[in-house]
Amino acid sequence: MPEFSLSRRQFLAAPLIAVSATAAYARLIEPYAYWISETDIFIRDLPERFEGFRMTQLTDIHHSRILGLREVRRVVSLAQQTKPDMFVLTGDYSTTYRRYVEPCAEALSELSAPEGVWAVLGNHDHYTDPELTTRALQGHHIAVLNNAHTTIRRGPDSLQLSGIDDWSWNATNWDRAFSGLNAKTPTILLSHQPAVLDLEQSNKVALILSGHTHGGQIKLPFLGAPARFATQDLKYARGLFRRGDTQLYVSSGTGVIGLPVRFGVRPEIAVLRLQRA
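Structure (tokenized):
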């Protein structure tokens, strides 16, 4: 049997090749490997006609020089193919520069659902220009719930949808967001920041839909998300959580921020289906 020997050069090169391949995957492949997740969420006292009601959530698109308009349009096309009853958008549409706001809003205008397209702002929308972002979205027939609410009706049954402006910018006005809501009717809350689950005000809602975390964006084997050592934002990183009677779904979003990479956290288009508990 012939002997196999590994030269010192080959031994040193092997980990470098592995690191290079991983870096290429994280930069060139995973950020664009969109995952359409499907989650059933069981809501107590959900009206009968909203059984199976489907919402598609987009969040943290972060249109920028790193993530171009072509990719935003691809996300929109994939989301539209899910054919939900309603679209919900939970913030961070562009990054840093105002010139990305209008093109992103125009691309999002291609979304269409029987019960409409509803949105809230995120922290990066405040960094950029919250008023411009609100006008751009509304100018493209996307309703922005800046501390406001609406009622979705199906015959005699109804479902309440409320939205708060970004909590981390002290832009949230809970009184305005909840004023006039019927305590006996389930309420879904759009909040860019998932941390609001820990606040007393969220006790009033059945379900919170959030983004912000990107799921950590990088999740390493055995170590998890390195970002958790630098921020408390990843307490609710991705998925379904519960506190008392309030549930929270956090999507990992479709864009990137900081490093233009994703690893172990695919970009997500979340399809949420309501079920009667």
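The domain at 11-276 is CATH 3.60.21.10 (Purple Acid Phosphatase; chain A, domain 2). The chain has one domain: 11-276.
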